Amino acid sequence: MLLTPSVLQTDANYCGRSWVAASDLKIRLVNRRYMLTQALVTLAILIIISTPPTLGQSNVTQPLQIQSTLPSYPLDHGNFTIRVGLIGFSNQSVRQDSLGSYLPHTLSPSIQTSQLNFGVAFYLNYSVSMFGDDANQSLRRFLASNIVVRAPPNYLTRQLGPDSMSYAVIQAKDVDYWIHANSNQLGIDPTSYTILVANVTGISNYDHYYEASYLPVDANYAQAPYLSTGAYFPVVNWMISWGGNSRAYFIDLSAGSRDPSHDYTFRTPAHIPIQYFSTYRRTNNDTLSEYIADYISEAVRNIILPDYFLFPPLLGTYRLDIFFFDDTERILDTNFVQFLNVSFLASAMRKLVPYANCVISVRFMHLATDKNLSDQMAHSLISSSKMIGYNYSPLIVNYYDARDLYYYLKTHLYDYVGQTSTNTTIPIFVFALKSAGRIVTPALESLNLATAKDPDGQPMDAAVLAFPELAIVSASERQLFDWGLGLSHAVTQAAGHMMGLSVGSAQTLANAQPSVMSLQGYAMDFSQFEADSIQRAHADFMLSFCREQISGVQSLYGDSIAAAQLHNATVAMNTGMESYGTLNFQSAVNNYAYCLSTLDQLFQQHVLWLTQQMNSLGGGTVLVSMDALREGRIELSRAVSARSQGDMSLSWAYLSRASVDENAAYIAEEGYSSSRQAYLLTGAIVGLCIGLGLDRLITRVAKRERDRSEVVSETPPAG
Fold first, then answer.
1. Average pLDDT of 92-111?
2. Whole-angstrom distance, CA of residue 125 vs CA of residue 581
3. pLDDT surpassing 70 at residue 34
4. Once rounded to an integer, what is the mean pLDDT over residues 616-634?
5. CA 407 – CA 330 distance, rounded (Å)
6. Which of 209, 471, 513, 657 would give a disulfide with 238, using CB separation of 3.0 to 4.6 Å?
């Protein structure tokens, strides 16, 4: 409350008037001092409240620009060295420098189903060695001592017609033995790829081939009445090359037939043995170096760094769901394992992806019990004919269009595999068809397919048709019960396709491998080259994400707790790259998996930390922090969503923005709190100083007035 002056007595004497005047002046001065002090304190408080904290531009990070991108392809693998060893050649016949100039120096595998580039570029170097006479004579003696001279088997002549010639035959497994026994002298290193090219002309008076033969693996063959004819088994493959049990591949350019019409490698154009090169010289006048380089290049492109059928799927568990439909009415749920033994498939999958789990399930049913699928089969019938087959057996040949079946199965896939599986599901539909039925695609081409024929004149192999979502396998009643063909080989080949493996054409060196993917063999496993190609693809994919995510972690704003985990992830990535360089792709995958797991933990921890920090700030006090917290929570939600959808790059980018927003809000709140305290203290000090100064001033003024009043009282009034 303000002080009020007392009522003045106007009729008082002069002395009384002076006292009253002095008292009134003092009251008015005190009143003004209080009003001024109060006004100054109020002004200080208003200044504190109305003045925002100062935020310099250096304290606020600008928002990041986010782009949703795929992994940072292409990956470039520089200095990818392939060793080439020449045996039985001289520097006069082949120049090493010119040979290297004809070889591919950059390769980028593609995806056959989409015609897209896989996204990895290999820059190739070749280390070409010309082995001396010691290696040449060692190989010649070894091969000559293992030759067996005989006529070609009926299995092969049935495809090319009668052949009266005899051939020198060497078992392909013997080549593996010689290479392994002489690996040190040949400089073969399991941490690199090696292509050995030989010229052993004259080891025999007969043209020579390398042979791999295969017996049936499924139990049903034992009851096959025509097994002894040799029409189906043993499967015999005559070759000029061999490899796949190790990382060395052997090519004998002197092997093969001098008669192009009986080239049992089934190449188009026919293989020309090197000793007949001058006789059958190509019309484009290729040099001998170019001739040799063509075969080396083929091995590099189709065996060491092949294309992929599909993008190789990568997960910790692969689930193979096999649906076995019988239309013969001769297979039961108690004996179907005689035709399909999944233990072969499980063993092959362990070699292909040893770091993953594999779950295989088989569901057997008679086709008639699935009415919708049975109706679709009838609808997809292209043609039906009757014929008399081998041994006067009446046959019904039905051709079914795979395109119709594929469309039906794709649109009804959830009816078979379900919708809730969290693992990679590979659906394989297997059909045992009546009589001589077969599923073909495309219809017109398959009816005239140039493939090996059985004595009935029908294709010998089981049909394996792979699509992006599923695979279809079919074999006929005639094949399964009369010729002894099983389904394990075809199903394993279908699984290889769905894992990403392609098959070369019937004219490539890729068929000269101990591989289930070979079109001319009957092995039940994948080759070392095929296992490498899948594991290398997985490692490339994981390396790209490791690099991208580590870059994302490093962009986090002010994150000090990530240092140790980031270091561990970086070390794991670098260790994986070292393993990759030595072709230890399994170790590379395991190290990259640890790197990605560490980064995922770091992501989750940083999300939790940011959430706690934002919660501690509440909704913010000043406008700057309110906006920053609102945007930060939105970006954090987007980061978690992107992570759940597998977009790792985008998740780290959103997380970085959330970190920036949280930091901006924290600075704004800290600045506001510090400024408020500083202004309050300043206002109190200023108010106190002003108050003390006014008090002293009023005291001096009052004293002066008091002195004057005393002088006035001592002076007598005028007469």
1. 88
2. 14
3. no
4. 80
5. 28
6. 209
147 alpha-carbon distance from chain centroid = 46
Report the pLDDT averaged over residues 186-200: 94
Structure token digits, residue 442? 């495309």
Q: What is the pLDDT of residues 671-703, one digit of tens each?
A: 665 555 555 566 666 666 666 666 666 677 666
List of residues 6+ apart from 548 with CB closer than 8 A? 71, 72, 648, 649, 652
Other CB atoms within 10 A of residue 367 CB: 19
Q: Is the pLDDT of residue 317 over 60?
A: yes
| CA 64 – CA 72 distance, rounded (Å) | 18
Q: At 598, list the tokens.
A: 């560490």
Distance CA 586, CA 483 (A): 40
What's the pLDDT at 21? 40
Side chain identity at residue 714, one-letter code: E
Query: Per 3-state DSSP, what percentage of the chain is helix, strand, and coil (rounded to 5)?
Result: 50, 20, 35
Residues 82-101, mean pLDDT to the nearest whole number: 89
pTM > 0.90 = no
Share of the chain above pLDDT 90, in %: 55
For the chain, the average pLDDT equals: 82
Q: What is the pLDDT of residue 549?
A: 84
**β 357-366/424-433 pair status:** unpaired
Distances in Å between the alpha carbon of 174 and those of 179, 357, 520, 696?
A: 9, 34, 19, 117
Which tokens sit at 230?
């040799």
Nearest-CA neighbor of 138 among 173, 176, 182, 196?
A: 182
Alpha carbons 125 and 79: distance in angstroms, whole number: 6
Q: Which residues of 297-335 are buried (b: 16+ CB within 10 A; e: fewer)?
A: bbbbbbbbbbbbbbbbbbeeebbbbbbbbbbbeebeeee
Those residues with Cβ within 8 angstroms of residue 372's Cβ, 6 or more apart along the chain or in another chain = 412
Separation CA 237–CA 521 (nearest Å): 6
- As a whole number of Å, the CA-based R_g of the chain is 44
Q: Where are the alpha helices (DSSP H) in 51-104?
A: 96-101
Let me know how long the chain is.
Answer: 719
8 Å CB contact between 310 and 501: no
Query: Hey, how many other C-beta atoms are within 10 angstroms of the C-beta on 670?
Result: 13
| H helix and E strand count, the chain | 19, 20
By the 8 A CB rule, do 380 and 327 touch?
no
CB 272 within 8 A of CB 173: no
CB neighbour class for 95 (10 Å; exposed up to 12, middle 13-18, buried from 19): middle
SS3 386: strand
54, 715 Cβ separation under 8 angstroms: no
ω into residue 71 within 30 of 0, thus cis?
A: no
pLDDT confidence of residue 42: 46
* Tokens found for residue 610: 């940011």
| pLDDT exceeds cutoff 80 at 550 | yes
The CA distance from 350 to 3, in Å, is 99
Closest Cα partner for 305 from 453, 145, 103, 507? 103
Phi-psi region of 115 (alpha: psi -120 to 50; beta: other; left: phi over 0): left
Count Cβ neighbours within 10 Å for each residue of 123-143 and write b for 16 or more, e otherwise: ebebebbbbeeebbebbbebb
| Maximum separation of any 2 CA atoms in the chain, in Å | 173
608: Cβ contacts below 8 Å, ≥ 6 apart: none
Q: Which residue has the higher pLDDT, 708 or 203?
A: 203
Looking up tokens 């009023």, which residue turns up? 698
Give 481-536 pLDDT, tens digit per residue: 999 999 999 999 999 999 999 976 666 888 999 999 998 889 999 999 999 999 99
